[in-house]
Amino acid sequence: MYARTEEFTETQQALAAMAKLLSHPARIAIIELLAQERSCISGNIASKLPLSRPTVSQHLQELKRAGAVIGEVESQRVCYCLNPVFFNRLQPLMRYLFAEVDKYAATADQSCCKPGDDNTC
Fold first, then answer.
1. How is the beta sheet containing 77-82 ordered, strand by strand?
2. Does residue 55 form part of some domain?
3. CA angle at residue 1 from 16 to 64, to 5 degrees?
4. For the chain, what is the domain count?
5. Residue 2: inside a domain, yes or no?
6. Which residues contact 64 (CB under 8 A, 6 or more apart)?
7. What residues are paired with 40 via a beta bridge?
8. Which domain, by its residues, includes 25?
9. What's the rounded Cα separation, in Å, for the pair 21 and 102?
10. Residue 37: inside a domain, yes or no?
11. How many CA atoms does the CB half-sphere of 111 hold within 13 Å?
12. 47 or 74, which is more confident?
């Protein structure tokens, strides 16, 4: 079965791609660390997380490939930092999604589909 992503809006596709990128807790931890420290060297990141250096490197490459992280080679080391352009694009997409959810939550029948019910609405 093939996904027909082209039938979804550009906003839906962009939000899904960013959500997929952020779907691993290691990548969230790396983003938090880079936000706190402003910039890091790959080895320093691995020493601050419960992950091996190769695993951190894989996640950094995934973040870099998606544009969330920028890396600069400094001799034998790579210095990584967050890409503000990526996060400036992510924030309005998340606000858009949660605005839709908030509209639903404000008007939803609170008795519909409660946990423990037979999930029929």
1. 40-41, 77-82, 69-74
2. yes
3. 35
4. 1
5. no
6. 70, 71, 80
7. 80
8. 9-93
9. 24
10. yes
11. 0
12. 47
As a whole number of angstroms, the distance between CA 75 and CA 72 comes to 10
Closest Cα to residue 21, out of 100, 83, 95, 96?
A: 83
Long-range contacts of 63-70 (CB under 8 A, 24+ apart): 63/21, 63/27, 63/30, 63/31, 66/17, 66/18, 66/21, 68/21, 68/31, 69/30, 69/31, 69/34
- Whether the full predicted model's pTM is greater than 0.85, yes or no, is no
In the predicted model, what is the mean pLDDT of the chain?
Answer: 83
Q: 12: exposed, middle or buried (C-beta count within 10 Å: 0-12, 13-18, 19+)?
A: middle
- Written as one letter, the residue type at 102 is D
Among the listed residues 79, 46, 82, the one whose alpha carbon sits nearest the alpha carbon of residue 63: 82
What does the pLDDT read at residue 69?
A: 92
The pair of three-digit structure tokens given for residue 46, joined into one six-digit string: 């691995």
Give the CATH number of the domain where residue 74 resides.
Answer: 1.10.10.10
